[in-house]
Amino acid sequence: MMPKSKVPRAQAVKREIQVIDRELYHLRELQRRYSRRMLKAAVAIWCAGVAIFFISVMLLLGSLLTTTSTPWPSLLILALAAPIVIASVFVHRLERKQRELERRRKYLMEKFEEAMVKRVERIVKGL
Fold it and tell me: What is the pTM of this model?
């Protein structure tokens, strides 16, 4: 049996659960806002990419006449992919933090239930 000082009090655990719930709410809101911004940016980048593609095709057709090859079209593709990679890394970090908070919340809920059962047992023994 654990000493009294080691047993988590129900109110303390409840408070920790509330803090984690608030963090999860803010994290989900941040992820929702960021996803909306990312979608708008993706549409803009896609439109710009299509325009640049057509411009580069026109320039390449002109450069085929001079038979000189330039490496900038492949660099352009990499540059257009960079924002998508950065956004996916950011979203992955948010998801990982969210999973960690949910795992902590589950653990604290178990401790809270344990503390409540011990409290009920003490009350029943006192009767």
Answer: 0.51
